[in-house]
Specification:
This protein is of the alpha+beta class and 97 residues long. The chain is built from 1 helix and 3 strands.
């Protein structure tokens, strides 16, 4: 089984780059942002995807980009005006974040 714990400078830089784009896109300051690359074994799901979660005023927002974090570009992020649609309901359960 392939390990997805990557401790190399390129992977860390990609995570930081996506985190910065999310912060800029949604005009965030000190809010918590999680960017993670995860493997998915569900049929029809891409084998590697990037999961992004953020917390604003105690509300969680969540979306995925269906490619490895190193391949994510700023244009892959949802537009700012879509933020209300990204809020996660209180009863939502997710193993990734």
């Amino acid at each position: 089984m392939r390990s997805f714990t990557k401790n190399n400078p390129e992977h860390t830089a990609a995570l930081d780059r996506v985190r910065l784009w999310v912060r800029e896109r949604f005009s965030l300051d000190g809010e918590a942002i999680l960017v993670a690359e995860v493997a998915c074994a569900v049929p029809g799901c891409p084998p590697i995807e990037t999961v992004i979660a953020l917390w604003i005023d105690r509300r969680r927002y969540h979306f995925k980009v269906f490619k490895p974090v190193a391949e994510v570009v700023a244009e892959d992020l949802p537009p700012y005006w879509l933020k209300p649609a990204l809020v996660v309901s209180d009863d939502f359960e997710c193993e990734c974040c």
